[in-house]
Automatic annotation (TrEMBL), chain A:
Protein name: Uncharacterized protein
UniProt source species: Nocardioides daeguensis
Automatic annotation (TrEMBL), chain B:
Organism: Nocardioides daeguensis
PROSITE patterns registered for this protein in UniProt: 4FE4S_FER_1, 4FE4S_FER_2
Keyword Iron-sulfur: yes
Domain 4Fe-4S ferredoxin-type stretches: 92-120
Name of the molecule in the record: (Fe-S)-binding protein
Automatic annotation (TrEMBL), chain C:
The species this protein was found in: Nocardioides daeguensis
Alphabetical keyword list: Oxidoreductase, Transit peptide
Name of the protein in question: D-lactate dehydrogenase (cytochrome)
Required cofactor(s): FAD
Every FAD-binding PCMH-type domain range: 47-230
EC number(s) recorded for this UniProt protein: 1.1.2.4
Domain of life: Bacteria
Entry-linked InterPro entries: FAD-bd_oxidored_4_C (IPR004113), FAD-bd_PCMH (IPR016166), Oxid_FAD_bind_N (IPR006094)
Length: 96, 435, 504
C-alpha cells in the first residue's frame, strides 16, 4: 500500500505539510484521505509535535501494511462483499 | 520492616521476613536541573505510553526478545521518565537499562499511538529520542558506559569510528578514508557526492566499491568529499551530542565548500542522520537533497540505465534493515531490485513481520553488549535458515558484520544488495567483505 | 510495600535456585517496572504496588523451588506474564516476589499428527503463530492484545478471543497445562488425564479450576494448545443503523443464524459511534444518521465463507442495516486489535484533547438484558463524568460471548477514559466506586461482572462473594486447602477472607 511516495528521497522543500482543509468540526486534512485532529483541540493538555511530510506518509503507509498483515495473520484470503456503501435513508439530514 | 508505613494499610501479608536491606521507596527525591529538564521535555511522550501501557512494542523489540527482561522494554524506557518525575528513580537507577536498545524504531512504528493515530494527532511515540536523551544525560553526568567512552574518544581523534578495533594501530584514520576507492578514479566534489560511512570505508569496502562502479556504469555523476569525517550519527546515538554536532558541522561546511546540492547516503544510518539529525541541528540552513542509494539504484534499473545481465544463481531472502524499513518506510525499492536480478530465487518475508527482526548492530549495542548483538543476529539467521536459502541479503553495511558472523555458523552467506547488483551488472567489485 | 523487607538469605537462596546472573533482580527500576498493567493505576501510590524481588526463571523446577522457598518465609508470590491484563492480576498488592515468566518462551513440541503445540507460558500468540504458519495451522486465541499478551497470562485470566464463536476462547483452546501449585508441587491439569486429550470423564475437571485464577492458585509453567487448520478465507461486514434498537435486533439475527463459520458478532452503541467520530478514520466520514453499528466476521474454508457471506449480507440488511462498503469493512475489522488504548482519545469538557488511560469495564450478561445494562452504565458514567474532571465516557460495545455458541449471552464493555495525570486519592476512590456500581448492575441483571478481564481489583473484588453466592464458601475452602499460607497473589478477589475466618 505504501507506493507512490518516495521514501528514499528527501527534498527539504517537500517536508513542510500543505495547508489544511476542514472535514468535520473536529477534523481537518492536509493529504487526501489522511485525517488530522483540528489543531485547536491540541495544545491545552497535549502538544502536537513537529512532523515532516515524510513521517506522516510513513505512518499512514505502515498502518495500511499492518492492517493487511493482520488479515494475513488469521486467514489466507480476505473475501469482500464486492459492494460500495449502501445509500443512506432518504429522509435524513445527511447532506446538510 | 522500617517505619515507612503511612501508605501501607493493606500490607498485612503473613510475612515473617525481617529487614536485612532497607531501601526507602516512599520518600520522593528531588531532581537536579538536568534531570528536571529531561522529564519536562519528555513528560508528554512518556505519558502517552505510560497511561496506555499496552506494550505492543515488547515482542517487536529485538533486545527484549533476547533478554526477556521488562526493564529493557520500550515501555519501561517511558515509565522510567514518569518514575523519575515522581522522585522514585534516579538516572543512576536506570543507566544500564538504556544501553539495551539498537534504536531500530520497531517499538515506535508498532506502538498504536504512532501506528493508528500518530498522523492524526501529529503526536507519535518517540522512544528512540527518549533513549538518546537519556544517554546524553548519562554523558552529562559522567555515567556513560566505558566502551562508548573509548569508542567516541577515538572517533573524535581519528575523525572516523574505530571500526577496525579500538586497540593497536589499525589503518583507520583520515589518511586511509579513501583507500577503498583505489583505482576507481572518482572526482572530488561536484553537485552530488557519495557519503561513505565508516564501516563501509574501512571494513566492508566491497560495498562502496560496488556502489561507485554501479553509478559509473549507469553514467550517474558523483564525487567524494574533500575531507570526509564520520557523519556524527553514532555519537548522537550514544549520547555524545556535542561531538555529533561538531562532526555534522564539519561535513556540512565541506559540502558547502564544493557547492554540493545532493548527498547520496549509501548506508541507512546516514540517511536517518542526514534527514533527521542534520535538519534538527541546522534548521533551514540544511537545504541539501538526500538520496538513499537503494531508491537511486532501483530507479537506474527501472529506467534502463543500469543493465543487469549476469544471472545470479542464488536462493536469497532479504533482511529489511531497521532504519530503512521501520524508521524510513523504505521496503519496496530493495524488493524491486532483487526481483530484477536475473537468475535469483527470492523468498520474501513481508516488511511488517520484519518489524521484529534486527541484526543487533545499531545504536552502539555491539560496543557495550556484543553478546546480545550476536544473539539477535543468530536468531535472524535462524529465520533465514527456515526458508532454506543460501544467501541473506541486507542493505545496511552495519548489519552485515554481525549477520556474517552468525551466517558463518548457519552456513548462509551474507551479501549486500548492492554487491549483488554489481555482480549482475558484470562488475568486478574488488575490496573486501570482512577484515 | 514501602520498604524492602526480604532477608539477604532469601536473595542468596533465590540466586542459588536460578543459577545465572541477572535472574534475581532487587534494584529499583526492575521493581517499579513490574508494578502496573495497562489498567488505570493510582500513580500517586505507585510505591505501594511494587514487589520486593523479581525473579526470571527458565524451568518449572526453578518455579517450584521459588514457591517452596516463599512458603518457608511466607513471602507473597505474584506471577507476571505479559503484564497486559486489564484487571490487575499481575499487580503485587503486598510486595513479595514477582515471578516473571517471560524467559519461559520456548516452543517445545509441534505435533501435527495430534494437532497440538506445547509451549512455555512466556510465549506470545503472534510469535507462536508466525512459527506455525508454514504448517498450515494456527493457535487462534485472539484478544485485542494478540500481539503482546502471553499464553501464561491468557490462562491466568481465562481470556476472551475475538474469534471465540468460531474457535473457542482460551479455556477451550488450552488442552492441558502444567502448573506449580501454591505449595510448590508441579502438576498437570487437563480435562481428566492425558496431555493431548480434549474430553474426559475421569476425575474432577481440574483444568477449569486452574483457568482464570488470576495467579491465586499457582504459576503455569507449560501449556499444550490446540492447533486449528488455518482459515482459507475471512469475511467481515459492517452495517450502519439509524438507531440502537434495530442494530441490537440485527445482532441477534446474525448470532442465531446457525452459520458455523461465524467468528463473532459485534455492536457499537450510539455513544461509541460518537466517540469513534473523534479520531477513527472509518467513522469520521460517516453521515449524521449513523447511530449504531453491527458487524460480523466469518472464518473457514473458502467455499463455506463465500456462501456464509451472502447470508450475512442478507441478514445485516434485513431490518434496514446499511452496508458500510468494502473499503472500510476490511480495514476496520483488522483495526479492532490496536485502536482501543490510545490515550489521546480523551477529551475534556471543552472538547480539548486530554491524554487518558483506558478503562474498560467488561461483563457477561444475557442478551435480553443488554439494553437495560447499557442504559444504566451510561447513566452511572455520566454522573461521574459530570462530577469529576478526569473521566470521559468512550461508549460501549457488545460482542458474542459463548464459545461456539454465539446466540445467547453477550460480552458488554463500557470504555472510559481516566486522566491519570490529574488523579488524586479522592478521584481514585471515585474510580473504584464507579467500577463497583458498574459491576453491581451486571450482577443485578443475572450476569457476571467480568467476561474476560477478571474481578481482581478494588471495585470488583469486593463483589466476588456476591456474584459467587453460596459457592463462595467452596471457593474459599479450595483456596485455603491449596494455599495454606496465602502466598499466591494475596489481596485479590477478596480471597484473603478465606484466612480471616480461620484465625477468627
Amino acid at each position: 500500500m505504501s507506493g507512490e511516495y518516495r521514501f528514499g528521497r528527501w527534498v527539504p522543500a517537500e517536508q513542510v505539510p500543505p495547508e489544511a482543509e476542514r472535514v468535520t468540526d473536529q477534523v481537518i486534512q492536509r493529504f487526501e484521505h489522511v485525517f488530522e485532529v483540528d489543531p485547536d483541540l491540541m495544545g491545552r493538555h497535549f502538544n502536537q509535535q513537529k512532523m515532516a511530510t515524510w513521517d506522516t506518509k510513513r505512518i499512514v503507509a505502515a498502518r495500511w501494511d499492518h492492517l493487511d498483515a493482520v488479515h494475513a495473520e488469521f486467514a489466507d484470503e480476505v473475501i469482500l462483499a464486492g459492494e460500495g456503501p449502501d445509500p443512506g435513508p432518504t429522509t435524513s439530514q445527511e447532506h446538510e | 520492616m522500617s517505619n515507612e508505613h503511612e501508605h501501607n494499610e493493606s500490607a498485612t501479608a503473613p510475612t515473617a521476613a525481617t529487614a536485612a536491606t532497607t531501601v526507602d521507596l516512599g520518600t520522593p527525591q528531588f531532581l537536579g536541573e538536568v534531570e528536571q529538564a529531561f522529564v519536562e521535555k519528555w513528560h508528554e511522550n512518556a505519558t502517552g505510553c505510560f497511561s496506555s501501557g499496552h506494550k505492543f512494542c515488547r515482542e517487536v523489540c529485538p533486545v527484549t526478545q533476547v533478554t526477556r527482561n521488562e526493564n529493557h522494554t520500550p515501555t519501561a524506557f517511558h515509565a522510567n521518565v514518569i518514575a523519575m518525575e515522581k522522585g522514585h528513580l534516579t538516572v543512576e537507577d536506570v543507566a544500564d537499562d538504556y544501553v539495551h536498545c539498537t534504536q531500530c524504531g520497531g517499538c515506535e512504528v508498532r506502538c498504536p499511538n504512532t501506528l493508528m493515530v500518530g498522523d492524526f494527532y501529529r503526536a507519535r511515540t518517540e522512544t528512540v529520542k527518549v533513549v538518546r536523551a537519556m544517554r546524553a544525560m548519562l554523558v552529562d553526568k559522567g555515567l556513560d558506559r566505558e566502551g562508548w567512552k573509548v569508542w567516541n574518544r577515538l572517533t573524535n581523534e581519528l575523525k572516523n569510528e574505530p571500526v577496525l578495533g579500538v586497540e593497536g594501530d589499525s589503518p583507520n584514520a583520515q589518511a586511509q578514508v579513501r583507500d577503498w576507492a583505489e583505482g576507481l578514479d572518482i572526482p572530488i566534489g561536484g553537485d552530488t557526492i557519495m557519503f561513505v560511512d565508516c564501516e563501509a570505508a574501512y571494513y566492508r569496502t566491497s560495498v562502496p566499491r560496488a556502489t561507485a562502479q554501479i553509478l559509473q556504469a549507469a553514467g550517474y555523476e558523483f564525487g567524494l568529499m574533500n575531507e570526509q569525517w564520520c557523519c556524527g550519527g553514532p555519537a548522537g546515538e550514544m549520547g555524545y551530542v556535542e561531538q555529533s554536532m561538531a562532526f555534522a558541522r564539519h561535513n556540512v561546511d565541506d559540502w558547502r565548500k564544493s557547492g554540493v546540492k545532493r548527498i547520496i547516503a549509501i548506508e541507512p544510518h546516514d540517511y536517518v542522520h542526514f534527514t533527521e539529525d542534520y535538519p534538527a541541528y541546522f534548521g533551514e540552513e540544511f537545504d541539501f537533497e538526500v538520496v538513499q542509494i537503494i531508491d537511486l539504484v532501483a530507479e537506474l534499473i527501472r529506467d534502463g540505465r543500469l543493465k543487469l545481465t549476469e544471472p545470479i544463481d542464488r536462493v536469497v531472502t532479504y533482511h529489511d534493515p531497521c532504519r530503512l524499513n521501520k524508521r524510513k518506510g523504505i521496503h519496496e525499492a530493495p524488493r524491486e531490485i532483487l526481483r530484477s536480478i536475473p537468475g535469483l530465487t527470492f523468498k520474501d518475508v513481508d516488511r511488517v513481520t520484519q518489524w521484529s527482526y534486527c541484526s543487533g548492530g545499531g545504536g552502539g549495542l555491539p560496543i557495550e553488549k556484543p553478546e546480545i548483538t550476536a544473539e539477535i543476529s543468530r536468531r535472524r539467521l535462524e529465520k533465514a535458515s527456515e526458508l532454506e536459502v543460501d544467501t541473506l541479503v541486507s542493505a545496511c553495511v552495519w548489519s552485515e558484520r554481525p549477520l556474517t558472523a552468525a551466517g558463518d555458523e548457519a552456513g548462509i552467506e551474507v551479501k549486500d544488495i548492492i554487491e549483488l547488483v554489481a555482480e549482475s551488472a558484470g562488475i568486478e567489485i574488488g575490496g573486501r567483505t570482512r577484515a | 510495600m514501602s520498604t524492602i523487607s526480604i532477608e539477604d538469605e532469601v536473595i542468596d537462596r533465590l540466586n542459588a535456585i536460578l543459577g545465572e546472573d541477572g535472574a534475581v533482580l532487587t534494584n529499583k527500576s526492575s521493581r517499579f517496572n513490574r508494578a502496573r498493567v495497562p489498567a488505570p493505576f493510582p500513580v500517586h501510590r505507585w510505591e505501594e504496588f511494587i514487589p520486593d524481588i523479581v525473579v526470571l526463571p527458565r524451568t518449572a523446577e526453578q518455579v517450584s523451588q521459588i514457591v517452596k522457598l516463599a512458603n518457608e518465609y511466607k513471602i507473597p508470590v505474584v506471577p507476571r506474564a505479559g503484564g497486559t491484563g486489564l484487571a490487575d492480576g499481575a499487580v503485587p498488592m503486598k510486595g513479595g516476589i514477582v515471578v516473571d515468566i517471560k524467559r519461559m518462551d520456548q516452543i517445545k513440541e509441534i505435533d501435527l499428527v495430534n494437532n497440538t503445540v506445547t509451549v512455555g507460558p512466556g510465549i506470545n500468540m503472534q510469535t507462536l503463530n508466525r512459527s506455525l504458519k508454514k504448517h498450515g495451522v494456527i493457535y487462534p486465541d485472539d484478544p485485542a492484545s494478540y500481539a503482546c499478551a502471553l499464553v501464561g497470562g491468557r490462562i491466568g485470566t481465562s481470556g476472551l478471543s475475538l474469534l471465540g464463536a468460531r474457535y473457542g476462547h482460551t479455556r477451550d483452546l488450552v488442552i492441558s497445562f502444567e502448573i506449580v501449585t501454591p505449595t510448590g508441587e508441579i502438576i498437570e491439569v487437563g480435562e481428566g488425564g492425558g496431555r493431548k486429550v480434549r474430553k474426559s470423564s475421569t476425575g474432577y475437571h481440574l483444568k477449569q479450576l486452574f483457568m482464570g485464577h488470576q495467579g491465586t492458585l499457582g504459576i503455569v509453567t507449560e501449556a499444550t494448545l490446540e492447533l486449528v487448520p488455518r482459515a482459507e478465507a475471512e469475511f467481515a461486514a459492517f452495517f450502519l443503523f439509524e438507531d440502537y434498537e434495530t442494530a441490537y435486533k440485527t445482532f441477534a439475527l446474525i448470532a442465531k443464524s446457525g452459520l458455523a463459520t461465524l467468528g463473532g458478532v459485534m455492536m457499537f452503541d450510539p455513544e461509541k459511534v460518537d466517540y469513534l467520530r473523534r479520531d477513527d478514520e472509518a467513522y469520521i466520514i460517516q453521515p449524521d444518521w449513523v447511530k449504531a453499528v453491527c458487524a460480523a466476521s466469518l472464518f473457514g474454508t473458502k467455499i463455506e465463507v463465500e456462501v456464509g457471506a451472502k447470508k450475512v449480507m442478507e441478514l445485516g440488511r434485513s431490518l434496514g442495516g446499511r452496508y458500510i462498503g468494502d473499503e472500510i469493512a476490511a480495514g476496520d475489522w483488522a483495526a479492532r486489535h490496536d485502536r482501543y488504548a490510545n490515550p489521546l482519545h480523551g477529551r475534556d469538557k471543552d472538547g480539548k484533547v486530554v491524554p487518558m488511560s483506558w478503562h474498560c469495564e467488561d461483563a457477561a450478561v444475557p442478551y435480553s438484558e443488554v439494553p437495560e445494562v447499557l442504559r444504566k452504565w451510561h447513566e452511572i458514567a455520566k454522573r461521574y463524568v459530570d462530577q469529576y474532571d478526569i473521566f470521559d465516557d468512550w461508549g460501549a460495545f457488545q460482542y458474542t460471548n459463548g464459545a461456539h455458541k454465539p446466540w445467547a449471552d453477550v460480552l458488554v464493555e463500557i470504555d472510559m477514559g481516566l486522566w491519570e495525570d490529574r488523579m488524586d486519592e479522592e478521584s481514585w476512590q471515585a474510580f473504584v466506586s464507579l467500577k463497583r456500581e458498574i459491576a453491581q448492575v451486571a450482577i443485578d441483571h443475572g450476569g457476571s461482572m467480568s467476561s474476560c478481564h477478571g474481578a481482581t481489583r478494588a471495585g470488583d473484588a469486593e463483589l466476588v462473594p456476591t456474584e459467587m453466592g453460596a459457592s463462595w464458601e467452596v471457593m474459599k475452602t479450595i483456596k485455603r486447602a491449596l494455599d495454606p499460607n496465602n502466598i499466591m497473589n494475596p489481596g485479590k478477589q477478596s480471597l484473603d477472607e478465606a484466612y480471616e475466618e480461620v484465625t477468627a
